[in-house]
């Protein structure tokens, strides 16, 4: 069973991983996305988001930019939410 403390810790770790990817474009995109949505994610959505963050920066950027299609194993509600997300400057 997942406790609220576990979820808070997971969210903080995933927010950090989102913001410090190593690729500035993804730092901005995933950092803003995580700040906007991570607090509403339950355990299942956090699992999906964690699986997304395991993908390479170039793959994520290609999916978001529409250069390549999202593979079936990554096509989750969280990824679809990311694809609909717009960065604000």
Fold topology:
Layout: H1 4-19, H2 24-37, H3 43-53, H4 57-65, H5 77-84
Helix pairs in contact: 1-2, 1-3
Give your account of this protein's structure.
The chain is 65% helix and 0% strand. It has helices at 4-19, 24-37, 43-53, 57-65, 77-84. The radius of gyration is 13 Å and the shape is globular. The N and C termini lie far apart (39 Å). The model has no long low-confidence stretch (mean pLDDT 95).
Give a brief outline of the structure.
Helix content is 65%, strand content 0%. With 89 residues, the protein is an all-alpha fold.
What is the CA–CA distance across the termini? 39 Å
Q: Categorize the overall geometry.
A: globular
Helical content band? 55-70%
Oligomeric state of this protein: single chain
Residue share in β-strands? under 5%
Query: SSE order in H/E notation?
Result: HHHHH
Backbone CA Rg: 13 Å
Mean pLDDT: 95
The main sheet comes to: none
Structural features:
89 residues; mainly alpha; globular
């Amino acid at each position: 069973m997942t406790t609220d403390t576990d979820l808070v810790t997971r969210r903080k770790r995933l927010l950090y991983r989102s913001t410090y990817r190593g690729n500035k474009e993804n730092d901005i995109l995933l950092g803003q996305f995580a700040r906007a949505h991570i607090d509403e994610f339950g355990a299942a959505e956090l699992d999906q988001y964690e699986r997304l963050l395991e993908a390479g920066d170039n793959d994520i950027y290609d999916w978001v930019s529409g250069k390549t299609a999202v593979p079936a194993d990554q096509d989750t509600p969280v990824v679809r939410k990311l694809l609909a997300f717009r960065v604000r400057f």
